[in-house]
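Subgroup meeting minutes
Present: P.N., E.W., G.H.
Scribe: E.W.

1. P.N. recapped why we're keeping a running log of single-chain structure predictions: easier to compare across weeks, and new members can see raw inputs and outputs side by side.
2. G.H. added today's entry (138 aa).
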Amino acid sequence: MKRSKKPPMNHLKVYGRFLARGLAIIALTNFPNLSSAKAENPPQKGTLPIIIDVRTPQEFEENHVVNAVNIDFLSSDFETRVKKLSPGNQFQLYCRSGSRSARALSKMQQLGVQHVHNLGSLSEAAKRLNAQCTKGPC
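Output recorded in log:
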């Protein structure tokens, strides 16, 4: 009967380090929502953040966080609508999975919006905001 060889301990250490580094990278890339740059225009005190759903109007109609506004990231007028926003406000974005909102965050920062955060998916946004959705569970 042949015995299977166990990998030497040094291989396990290398694997453990690789796994730890990979998890650290994933943690950092899943939350690209906080900028380390200093804000030139501090957010206006006493104002609530504006919640923006960057999904399509059809997705927004199906269900969305109460009091959210819909600015479709995939629409041709996304930049125009963002440029009309007050730069002193705080903005919190979400979408279906967090991918579009991450891309929208990057685009908004390129357009000069400084106080913008990615809440991730619809359900993550509702949890983080402690908010309800318009049509049942988020």
